Amino acid sequence: MMSNITDLKLVELVDKIKKKELSSSEVTVAFIERSKKSKKLNAYISENYENAIKKAKIFDQKPDFKKKLPGIPIAVKDLFCTKNIRTTAGSKILENFVPTYESTVTQNILDEGGIIIGKLNCDEFAMGSSNETSYFGNVQNPVSENLVPGGSSGGSSSAIAAKLTPATIGTDTGGSIRQPASFTGTVGLKPTYGSCSRYGIVAFASSLDQAGPMTHDVKDCSLMLEIISTYDTKDSTSVDFKRENYLTNLNENIKGKKIGIPKEYRVDGMPKEIDELWEKGIKIIKENGGQIIEISLPNTNYALPTYYIVAPAEASSNLARYDGVKYGFRSKGENLIDMYEKTRSEGFGDEVKRRIMIGTYVLSSGYYDAYYLKAQKVRRLIKNDFDEAYKKVDAILTPSTPSSAFKIGEKLNDPVSMYLNDIFTVPINLAGLPAISIPAGHDKKGYPLGLQVIGKAFDEQSILNIAFALEKNISFKNNITDWWIK
Amino acid sequence: MSKNNGEYLIIRNDNKYEVIIGLEVHAQVLSESKLFSTSSTKFGSEPNTQVSLVDAAFPGMLPVINEHCIKQAVKTGIGLKAKINKRSIFDRKNYFYADLPQGYQISQYKDPIVGEGSVTLDMPNGEKNIGIERLHLEQDAGKSIHDIDPQNTLVDLNRSGVALMEIVSKPDLRSLDEVNAYIKKIRSIMRYLGTCDGNMQEGSLRADVNVSVRKKGDKKLGTRCEIKNVNSIKFMQMAIDFEANRQVDIIEEGGSIDQETRLFDTKKNETRSMRSKEDAHDYRYFPDPDLLPLELNDNYIDQIKKNIPELPDEKKKRFIEKFKLSPYEANILVSDIEISKYFEEVSKNSDVKLATNWITGELFALLNEKNIEITESPISSKNLSKLINLIKDGTISGKIAKSVFEIMRDGDKDPITIVEEKGLKQQSDPKELENLINKVIIENPKNVEAYKSGKDKLFGFFVGQVMKNSNGKANPKLVNEILKKKLN
Predict the structure, then answer these.
(1) Which CATH code, of 3.40.50.720, 3.10.129.10, 1.10.10.410, 1.10.3720.10, is assigned to B430-487?
(2) What's the pTM value of the predicted model, to 2 decimals?
(3) Is the CB of B94 less than 8 angstroms away from the CB of A103?
(4) Integer CA distances (angstroms), B135 to B42, B72, B311, in order
(5) In a 3-state reduction of DSSP, which class is residue B40?
(6) Where would you tag: which of A423, B152, B325, B487 has the fewest CB atoms within 10 A of its CB?
(7) pLDDT (tens digit, 9 = 90+) per residue, B416-465?
(8) Which candidate in A176, A238, A400, A403 is catalytic?
């Protein structure tokens, strides 16, 4: 019975609880039990099991079936501040930090009846593409031992793929939801910038960060988006647009939809399997009445360098608050400056320090114009590329990543090769657009590969519908054996 | 130093040096809550009791603009006859300090909310316009306290995030008197507008002072030094005087001025180097990605313009025209909004000339003596106008009025009641006065004789005697008239 529960998808669980076929306690305990058996994956940083079981019991005593997540247990990326639950951002500097406040996104989950069962591992301050920069250690990809789960939302992708939680949320600054989703054969959506409130999310790069759902399928993804996407006056960049009932409106009819294929995404040295996967996607679109249109996004090449100026610049400033004065880790120093230096040298890991240095450099007087200002101009050009494309098409189809998951340690000492992993996802953050990654096949090693559907700003419904159609026709199956259990 | 024709020059070895001064005034925005959070801005509260998660820069906290502060900045901009920028941008000024929780100050760098404007100063030799370069909004930092704990520096974040307006002048100021007049004028304008209480003791108004010197007649500006965070006009003047003389000494000795930031030691009355240009912070300014550019539409600005009250310059003009005051008197009465309000209340119900004299004379002396503001005046405007009316209608003499005023200052008693209770009413009955005068004439036959033979000066003696006999209550005007008739 227990193992059956964790095999159920989110929408199915909600349905069974509403029909009283399952109680919140049964569901919560099932996911917790499986999580306990899965310590080897190292998906969790903090567990909230006891408290969650208590909450499930309380829910069952007085269930409210009008909620969208009636007593559903959910683990979230440890970048969301959660009241009374330790929040580390994967960093030593916040190792013992317990917020007194709740992020808007997790509050939305709680308001709909969700129960937080734990906080999931991630790259330190979300800086990384393999979850290897976490102070709390590597995360295993359930697909295969010693394979990275992607990053930065690596704990989240591992936990959803391994069925430790029926759904989760991550954050995506340059691909941190979509790339790990692609690496683990799961669905990940980065909403339009301004969709989900950033209030209470540990900031990495403020102009790029977005929270988004990570789930087993497009239906679950639609439900989660409905819950977490709200207008919030506590975030000045939150946008008050008409949010859809994404799940209710979900349909696979893509007849007449114009789908763009950007030629610049056919990069040199891309594995053949990925090209084939892309072709498969194109074929499905055509077969279902969609129209394929070749488009050009001429500034795509500049996206990665632009991103690696803008994101570190903002990060270098956002992370200045971790100085040992008010909260978090503090090292003893001879004086104030010495205390700062020791605290930040010991409290931050190498990748974070690397990005703080890059960011500090590109903002320095004398370099600002050449780097930061120019990057902002290029960012505008990249956005213009998409605006132009969207005059002709409704959405854009690309691969999610240029490769499948790699081995733990493989790229750790080669930051540039690591950064290149985000080549298909980064432009979308720079343009502030929504994009979803869905599992679409396997490479010859048997590792999952994803396709990315990019939408117009605030048109999440269209990409969900296209993804839904693709999902139905691909009928992807994740071959995950529970190798890490016993 | 010499002050020829109001000029402030430093003279060394026959060289005359002109002093060039520019001010960056930091004025705390009058607002219940902070610039980007809802915490209170109340002064003097227990340390760290007015600190929100945003002010303390907790992870994931975001700034949200307090619209009231924007309005206050626009109002002040209008008061400074300045251009209101419809698009302004909040930037991050990055530096580390214990009382700067975010590790950056949110400020406006390239695109401030208010652009160029000007302020008119009334100097003894005429009006002088001082250019305003810009006004921008920024957050205040917290306070580091070094002298409570011997081992540690303590931090109070109550001020952290409080809204400040930085008003930057052009280097148009040339003397200590102009600095004094400029600060007072800016303060006056903001108090009229209700955008800053101008309280220098509580730190609501501070300034960074830029000073350079050049030989009189030179066109090129000298290298300037910036003196940080001076919190009174007196200290500003002392700091400028010291700094200008220091610079002149260096130049006279053949040296050159290093551009640097200095601080003013109020105990030793000297400025000291804080950091040189080479050590200057690189603040790495960039637009704060947590805040969108601030866009104001014409309608918003027009609405604020419509509700701008009468400002000191206009009020002065009106006082001169309507009340026939001298420019000097008008200046004194409009310099502070509360004084002008008090004056208008008094003069509404009584003689303007007397009101002016009594306020700038007796009342100001009283306020000075007690070191209090006019809002705390022990004598209400209502009672002062009553007193003036008693003088005007001849009920009491000016001299008696002064003794009534002395009684009023201890408890704001109605002057009419005082006059009645103490029987101070002026004797204006001609018959009674004649009796008093007759008595004096009879009692002083020799003096009468002397007066009649030409000693005109004795007239005062007779008046004095009559007044003395009446205990000062005799109407001096009538006494004069009757005496003249009797003696001639």
Answers:
(1) 1.10.10.410
(2) 0.91
(3) no
(4) 24, 11, 18
(5) strand
(6) B152
(7) 999 888 877 878 788 888 888 888 888 888 888 888 888 888 888 888 88
(8) A176
